[in-house]
Design goal:
Largest sheet: none
Radius of gyration: 23 Å
Number of helices: 17
Helix content: over 70%
Shape: globular
Strand content: under 5%
Number of strands: 0
Order of helices and strands: HHHHHHHHHHHHHHHHH
Length: 453
C-alpha cells in the first residue's frame, strides 16, 4: 500500500495557500478606475506602446463594439460616449478579466488531465490491453481529481457571468446579445441555464463511469471469478461512446464559446488531443515518482517505453489537428473564421508559435529514439515541457478572447497554477493511498507484469 507522505501533503497544502494568495492578489489589483486606465494608456502611448492599435480588434467581454469583422456592432449603444471613452472602458474590462481568465485556464488544464486519463483508462479496458494493467491504479488515482476539478471549472464559468461582470463569456451579457444578431441567434444553445445543465450532465456521466470502474477494479482483487472484469469491459465500451459526444460538446461550451462568433469543426478533436497527451504524460510522471520512492516494483522500463510512445504519438496527432485547423482556415481566408488566428498572430505570436515548438518539435526530437523512452529522467524532462506546452495551448484558446493584448504570465497566472497543482497533488495522492497499487485480480495482470518489448 502506498502511504501519502506528510512531506508531500505539506507541499501540496503550501502550493494551495500560496496559489490562493496569488489569485487573491490578482483579483485585488485588477479593478482599475477609469482615470487609472486612462493614465496607463497615456503612458503606453508616450513610451511607444502598441496596445491601442490592436485592442479594438479583440473580442473581450462587455465591449460589444470590439468584434472584428461584424457589422452588427457598427451602431453604438450610447451615442454620447466618444471613441476614447469606449476604448478606455474596453481596456478597463480587459484588465478586470485577467484574474478570472488565469483562474479558468489553470482550472481547465488540471481538469482535462484527469479527463484525458479517464478516457485512456477506458480505452485500455475496452481494448483488453495486456501491457497497461500494472498502471491501472495510477490512472484511477489521477481520475479522482475529475469530480472536484470539473465542478470548479463549471462554477468559475458560471460565476464569471453572474457574480462577475461577464468576464469570460460575452454571450452571458444581455446587452451584448441585444446588439449582436449572431450571438442572439445562438441563445437557444448559449444561455446560462442550458450551459449549467449540460455541464452537470457531462460531469455526472464522467464521474459515474469513474465510480463504477474503480468499484469493479477493487472488487476484482478479491473475486473468485471474472464477473467484475466483464462489467468493467461493458461499461468502458459504453462510456467511450458517451465520452466522445460529451467531450466535443464540453469543448464547444467551456472553451470555444469564449469566441462565440468563431467555430471549427475540428475543435472537439483538437481539445481531445491536448487533454489526451497531457493525461498520458501525467501518468508517466506519477509512475516515475512512485517508482523512485520504492513503489510499483512490477513496473519496468518496457512499460515506461510504451507510455512514452503514446506521449510521442499523441503529440504528432495533436500537431496534425493543429495544422489542419490552422492551415484550412488561414488559406480559405474567410473573415469570420480567420479573425481567430489574426488576433493570435497580432497579440500572441510568442505563445502561439512557441506552443508548436513545445508540443511538437521538442517531443519529436526527444522521444523519437527508443532508448530515450526508457530513461526516466529523460521522460520526466520531456513530460514537463509537454505539460507546459499544453497549458500554453489552453492559455491561447482563452486569453485572446477575454483579455486581448493585456495578457502576461505573472502572479495571477502562476498563483492559479500553484493553487490547482496543489489541489491536484493532494486529491490524487490521497486516492492512491486508498487501495493497493497493483490491481492483482485483473485477468491480464500476469501478462502485464511479464511485459517485455
Amino acid at each position: 500500500m502506498y502511504t501519502f507522505s506528510n512531506k508531500l501533503k505539506t507541499f501540496s497544502i503550501i502550493l494551495i495557500v500560496l496559489g490562493a494568495l496569488g489569485v487573491g492578489y490578482g483579483f485585488m489589483t485588477s479593478h482599475k478606475s477609469f482615470k487609472e486606465v486612462e493614465h496607463l494608456l497615456e503612458e503606453e502611448a508616450h513610451h511607444g506602446g502598441g496596445h491601442e492599435e490592436t485592442t479594438a480588434h479583440t473580442t473581450t467581454g462587455h465591449d460589444t463594439h470590439a468584434v472584428e469583422g461584424h457589422d452588427t456592432h457598427e451602431a453604438p449603444a450610447h451615442g454620447e460616449v466618444n471613441a476614447h471613452d469606449k476604448h478606455v472602458k474596453h481596456v478597463q474590462h480587459q484588465i478586470a478579466n485577467r484574474p478570472w481568465s488565469a483562474l479558468y485556464v489553470a482550472a481547465f488544464f488540471f481538469m482535462m488531465i484527469a479527463l484525458g486519463v479517464l478516457a485512456f483508462y477506458a480505452i485500455q479496458i475496452a481494448s483488453q490491453a495486456g501491457w497497461s494493467p500494472v498502471l491501472f491504479r495510477v490512472m484511477e488515482g489521477i481520475t479522482a481529481y475529475l469530480l472536484p476539478g470539473a465542478l470548479i471549472v463549471l462554477l468559475i464559468a458560471i460565476a464569471s457571468g453572474t457574480i462577475g461582470h461577464y468576464n469570460l463569456f460575452i454571450w452571458m451579457d444581455p446587452e451584448v446579445v441585444e446588439h449582436d444578431k449572431l450571438i442572439a441567434g445562438k441563445t437557444g444553445w448559449l444561455n446560462i441555464p442550458g450551459f449549467a445543465i449540460r455541464g452537470l450532465i457531462f460531469i455526472a456521466g464522467w464521474v459515474t463511469y469513474r465510480h463504477f470502474a474503480r468499484k469493479f477494479s477493487i472488487a476484482q482483487d478479491e473475486a473468485g471469478d471474472n464477473s467484475n472484469f466483464k462489467k468493467s469491459f461493458r461499461i468502458a465500451a459504453a462510456f467511450l461512446v458517451f465520452f466522445i459526444y460529451s467531450e466535443s460538446m464540453m469543448s464547444w461550451d467551456w472553451i470555444m464559446s469564449v469566441d462565440p462568433h468563431w467555430f471549427s469543426t475540428l475543435f472537439g478533436w483538437y481539445v481531445f488531443a491536448s487533454m489526451f497527451v497531457s493525461g498520458i504524460t501525467t501518468i508517466a510522471l506519477i509512475t516515475i515518482y512512485l517508482k523512485s520512492k520504492g513503489y510499483l516494483e512490477f513496473v519496468n522500463a518496457n512499460h515506461l517505453h510504451d507510455v512514452a510512445k503514446f506521449m510521442f504519438a499523441i503529440s504528432i496527432f495533436w500537431t496534425y489537428l493543429w495544422f489542419s485547423q490552422f492551415m484550412l482556415i488561414w488559406y480559405s481566408n474567410i473573415p469570420e473564421e480567420v479573425t481567430y488566428f489574426v488576433t493570435r498572430f497580432n497579440d500572441y505570436k510568442l505563445p502561439f508559435l512557441g506552443m508548436v515548438a513545445l508540443n511538437f518539435i521538442f517531443p519529436l526530437l526527444m522521444l523519437m529514439n527508443a532508448d530515450y523512452k526508457r530513461m526516466p529522467w529523460f521522460v520526466v524532462m520531456t513530460g514537463i515541457v509537454i505539460l507546459f506546452g499544453h497549458y500554453i495551448d489552453i492559455f491561447n484558446m482563452i486569453m485572446p478572447a477575454t483579455v486581448g493584448d493585456r495578457w502576461f504570465i505573472g502572479i495571477p497566472e502562476i498563483g492559479a497554477i500553484a493553487l490547482f497543482a496543489g489541489l491536484f497533488i493532494f486529491v490524487v495522492f490521497a486516492a492512491l493511498a486508498k487501495a493497493p497499487l497493483l490491481a492483482k485480480g485483473y485477468p491480464l495482470m500476469k501478462e502485464s507484469e511479464d511485459f517485455h518489448y
